Amino acid sequence: QVQLVESGGGLVQPGGSLRLSCAASGFAFSRYYMSWYRQAPGKERELVAFISVTGGSTNYADSVKGRFTIYRDNAKNTLYLQMNSLEPEDTAVYYCAATYRLGGDISWGQGTQVTVSS
Predict the structure, then answer these.
(1) How far apart are CA 29 and CA 34, in angstroms?
(2) Average pLDDT, stretch 58-82?
(3) What is the Cα 66 distance to its own chain's centre?
(4) DSSP for 20-66?
(5) How confident is the model at residue 103 (pLDDT cuts 50, 70, 90)?
(6) How many C-beta neighbours within 10 Å does residue 84 have?
(7) Phi and psi for 38 in degrees, rounded to 5?
């Protein structure tokens, strides 16, 4: 059973940084594609960043390119999202997601709130 637990969210001032973590259990983490999504109030959930099984390939939404970095530690079954130069528009609930096959079923974490405000 796939279990994903996000942590690291909180309140940060514009220009600040946060690192989100996603602890994975109950499945073969190193064989799954992993992603971070976010959902702001009144908006649809959107893909923020994607990382391949080995970590050798990543993709980012245009809005976060150059500011966010996704990476994974397969030995620790953990996914990360380093977020720098945060903007108020980054305020959202951030979700960790796992999928075994591209285009297949997605498993979700419960989400962690990120609020960027002065």
Answers:
(1) 9
(2) 98
(3) 15
(4) EEEEEESS-GGGSEEEEEEE-TTS--EEEEEE-SSSS-EEE-TTTTT
(5) confident
(6) 14
(7) -145, 155
